[in-house]
């Protein structure tokens, strides 16, 4: 049993919109002790495979700053290669956000989503996805106001949460201590119709049944419902 919150309760989330001055959209998302700066910037060009098709693209990059973890996280440029975990999470963020936007409505432009973890205590990818949606929303709102976009391309909201089993107990929104001891660990992404966008899951220390998977997904849905309720407050200030 958790001491600071219920087993199906998410950590406190705080989103600060327009956290940076230069990007089209930016937020600082604080999710418990996990903190991520998410930005969205619109570029007036597309990858080669989309040139001349009057269609846009959305791509993402994710990284963890050296001081985000108890031991220094070495920068990719010092390693001479891209960290495999960062690359995988970058693709995840891009996939999930492309599900919530009609890229035919943004012209030949690329929206770049960048997520920089400044403090990691579990759930950095779920915080990045959730914060990036708000950063994207801000960028799109500005593009509509200045006439860059003719109509709103966003078709749904997106949020993500982790769920898992630790010591035989099902938990929602695992912090680092819980995640590092989890027998089962899943990351779940949904839209505001509570349709699944992506599930990443593994039985790290134990197997789990289809019935247990359904229970994990019910817990994720409850957590994401709370996030969308918080979105209603945040969206008043963007």
Automatic annotation (TrEMBL):
Which keywords annotate this record?
Answer: Nucleotidyltransferase, RNA-binding, rRNA processing, Transferase, tRNA processing, tRNA-binding
The reply to whether rRNA processing figures as a keyword in the UniProt entry is: yes
Enumerate the Gene Ontology biological process terms: rRNA 3'-end processing; rRNA catabolic process; tRNA processing
Binding positions for phosphate per the UniProt entry: 85, 123-125
**Gene3D superfamilies in alphabetical order:** GHMP Kinase, N-terminal domain (3.30.230.70)
Q: Which reaction does it catalyse?
A: tRNA(n+1) + phosphate = tRNA(n) + a ribonucleoside 5'-diphosphate
* Membrane-spanning intervals of the chain: none
Q: What are its E.C. numbers?
A: 2.7.7.56
InterPro entries, from UniProt? ExoRNase_PH_dom1, ExoRNase_PH_dom2, ExoRNase_PH_dom2_sf, PNPase/RNase_PH_dom_sf, Ribosomal_Su5_D2-typ_SF, RNase_PH, RNase_PH_bac-type
Name the domain of life: Bacteria
Q: Cross-referenced CDD domains, in alphabetical order?
A: RNase_PH_bact (cd11362)
Q: Does the keyword Amino-acid biosynthesis apply?
A: no
Where does the record place the Exoribonuclease phosphorolytic domain?
A: 9-139, 158-222
Q: Which Pfam families match?
A: RNase_PH (PF01138), RNase_PH_C (PF03725)
GO molecular-function annotation terms? Answer: 3'-5'-RNA exonuclease activity; tRNA binding; tRNA nucleotidyltransferase activity
SUPFAM superfamilies assigned: Ribonuclease PH domain 2-like, Ribosomal protein S5 domain 2-like
Q: Please report which protein family the annotation says this sequence is part of.
A: Belongs to the RNase PH family.
Subunit annotation: Homohexameric ring arranged as a trimer of dimers.
This molecule's function is given as: Phosphorolytic 3'-5' exoribonuclease that plays an important role in tRNA 3'-end maturation. Removes nucleotide residues following the 3'-CCA terminus of tRNAs; can also add nucleotides to the ends of RNA molecules by using nucleoside diphosphates as substrates, but this may not be physiologically important. Probably plays a role in initiation of 16S rRNA degradation (leading to ribosome degradation) during starvation.
NCBIfam families membership: RNasePH
> Can you say what this protein is called?
Ribonuclease PH
Query: What organism, scientifically named, is this protein from?
Result: Peptoniphilus porci
Q: Which gene encodes it?
A: rph
């Amino acid at each position: 049993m958790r001491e600071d919150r219920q087993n199906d309760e998410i950590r406190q989330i705080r989103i600060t919109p327009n956290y940076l001055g230069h990007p089209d959209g930016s937020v600082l998302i604080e999710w418990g002790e996990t903190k991520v700066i998410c930005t969205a910037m619109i570029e007036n060009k597309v990858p080669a495979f989309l040139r001349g098709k009057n269609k846009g693209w959305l791509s993402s990059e994710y990284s963890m700053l050296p001081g985000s973890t108890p031991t220094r996280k070495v920068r990719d440029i010092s390693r001479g290669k891209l960290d495999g975990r960062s690359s995988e999470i970058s693709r995840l963020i891009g996939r999930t956000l492309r599900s919530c936007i009609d890229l035919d409505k943004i012209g030949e432009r690329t929206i770049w989503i960048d997520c920089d973890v400044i403090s990691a205590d579990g759930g950095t990818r779920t915080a990045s996805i959730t914060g990036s949606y708000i950063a994207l929303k801000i960028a799109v709102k500005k593009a509509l106001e200045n006439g860059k976009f003719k109509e709103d391309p966003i078709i749904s909201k997106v949020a993500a949460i982790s769920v898992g089993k630790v010591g035989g107990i099902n938990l929602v929104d695992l912090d680092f201590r819980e995640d590092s001891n989890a027998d089962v660990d899943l990351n779940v992404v949904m839209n505001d119709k509570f349709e699944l966008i992506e599930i990443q899951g593994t039985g790290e220390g134990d197997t789990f049944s289809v019935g247990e998977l359904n229970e994990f997904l019910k817990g994720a849905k409850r957590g994401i419902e709370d996030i969308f309720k918080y979105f209603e407050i945040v969206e008043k200030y963007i």
